[in-house]
Amino acid sequence: MPPSNAMPPLKMVHEYTEGTLILDVLDAATKSLVWRGTAQAEVLPSVDVSTPQARIREAVRRILERFPPKA
User: Are 36 and 63 in contact (CB under 8 A)?
Assistant: First the structure.
């Protein structure tokens, strides 16, 4: 086989941490699950403690936009 000038395929790896927030609504009498909402996002390193709290509040707001479920 003749020598080739082709470059080997380039592999790129991107690592990140993803978090999932789960919000469950339970029936108070039976303690059974009535509805579940979820949100997923990349977890960003932050030195500001208020930033994650603000992102969580926004995620909860977005989850609750889908509640109650439409029949």
Answer: no
pLDDT tens digits for range 7-31? 888 888 888 788 999 999 999 999 9
Per-residue pLDDT, 26:
97
Question: What residue ranges do the domains of the chain occupy?
Answer: 17-64
Could you tell me the two tokens for 53? 């709290």
Q: What residues does 39 pair with on adjacent strands?
A: 21
Give the burial string for 7-43 (b: 16+ CB within 10 Å, else e): eeeeeeeeeeeeeeeeeeeeeeeeeeeeeebebeeee
